[in-house]
Specification:
Layout: H1 9-26, E1 48-49, E2 52-54, E3 60-63, H2 71-79, E4 84-89, H3 102-110, E5 114-119, H4 129-146, E6 154-158, H5 167-182, E7 187-191, H6 199-202, E8 209-212, E9 226-228, E10 233-234, E11 241-247, E12 257-259
Parallel strand pairs: 3-4, 4-5, 5-6, 6-7, 7-8, 8-9
Antiparallel strand pairs: 1-2, 2-12, 3-11, 9-11, 10-11
Helix pairs in contact: 4-5
C-alpha cells in the first residue's frame, strides 16, 4: 500500500531519498559513488557506544523477510546508499520467514550495514498473556545467540487480522515487551495494518519504540522512530525484495538503536 502524502517536510525528504535510492538501485549503469569508508575506530564514531548504534535522523535502510545470501549482495545494497538492514528472528508457531543467521549478520556488518531485529508475526490463535512472555523470551534468546548486543531495539511485528481484541492482546504485547527488556533489549513495535488496537490503545502499551508501516495505521501520539517509505521493492543485485525505511526522532526525542556495522 502507498503511504498517504502529507505536507510534512520530513516525509517529503524521505520520499525524495527513497526515489534517489530506487533510481540508483535499478539503473544498469554504474551504481552511485560509495561513501568513503570510515578510518576511525568504532568507539569514536558519533552515536556508537561499543557495538550499539543510535541511528541518526534521516538514516536510510531496509527491512526484508528474505535473506542477503552473498557478500556481493550485501555490498551492492550498501553501495546504493542503505545504511541498515532489519531482519527477522522466528516466533514459535508464527509466520514462516527466513531468519537472520550468524553468517548473514557478519556479511551485512562487514559491508557497512547496521542491523536491527524483528520477531515474525505470531499465530493469532496463540495470543495469550503467558505466550507474550514465552515469545518475547524466545526472541531475546535468538538475538543473544546471534550476538545482537544488549541495548539494541528488538522489534515485534504487529500486523494482520484475527487478533483477539483489547485486554488479551494488550496483555500479550506488554508481557512480550517485559520479557525482551528483561533480557536487555529495548522493545519496539512495528505498527502495521491491523484493526485490533486503535492509536489510543497502542499508547497504553509500554513499548518505548515505534515503527510505522508503509500503509494506513492507527498511530500512537508519540509518533515514530522508523517509517517505511516504500512498499516492497525489488532491487537488482540484492538477491531479495526489500521495504525501504527511514529514521525519525519521535515526539519524546527518542531514536532507535541498532547493531553497529563493523569498523573499516
Amino acid at each position: 500500500m502507498k503511504t498517504t502524502a502529507t505536507k510534512n517536510t520530513a516525509i517529503k525528504n524521505a520520499n525524495a531519498s527513497a526515489r534517489r535510492i530506487s533510481s540508483a538501485a535499478t539503473k544498469k549503469a554504474a551504481p552511485p559513488p560509495r561513501t568513503r569508508k570510515a578510518t576511525t575506530a568504532l568507539a569514536s564514531v558519533p552515536g556508537v557506544t561499543g557495538a550499539v548504534l543510535t541511528a541518526p535522523v534521516s538514516m536510510i535502510g531496509f527491512d526484508t523477510s528474505g535473506s542477503i545470501d552473498t557478500a556481493a549482495n550485501a555490498a551492492y545494497l550498501a553501495s546504493c546508499g542503505y545504511k541498515f538492514a532489519i531482519r527477522y528472528v522466528l516466533c514459535q508457531g508464527g509466520l514462516a520467514v527466513k531468519p537472520l543467521t550468524s553468517a548473514e549478520a557478519s556479511r551485512l556488518r562487514a559491508a557497512g550495514l547496521a542491523i536491527g531485529l524483528i520477531q515474525a508475526i505470531p499465530n493469532p490463535a496463540n495470543i495469550t498473556a503467558a505466550n507474550g512472555t514465552r515469545d518475547g523470551a524466545y526472541a531475546a534468546s535468538q538475538a543473544k545467540t546471534l550476538g545482537y548486543p544488549p541495548g539494541c531495539v528488538l522489534w515485534f511485528d504487529f500486523e494482520g487480522g484475527s487478533f483477539p481484541f483489547d485486554n488479551v492482546l494488550i496483555a500479550y504485547l506488554n508481557n512480550w515487551c517485559l520479557a525482551v527488556q528483561g533480557a536487555g533489549y529495548p522493545a519496539g513495535l512495528y505498527n502495521g495494518p491491523q484493526n485490533a488496537l486503535n492509536g489510543q490503545q497502542i499508547m497504553q502499551l509500554i513499548f518505548p519504540h515505534y515503527w510505522k508501516a508503509d500503509s494506513i495505521t492507527n498511530d500512537p501520539s508519540r509518533g515514530y522512530q522508523i517509517k517505511q517509505i516504500t512498499g516492497t521493492t525489488n532491487v537488482p543485485g540484492s538477491g531479495t525484495a526489500i521495504d525501504v525505511d527511514m529514521v525519525f526522532m519521535d515526539s519524546k526525542g527518542d531514536l532507535p538503536t541498532m547493531w553497529a556495522a563493523q569498523a573499516a
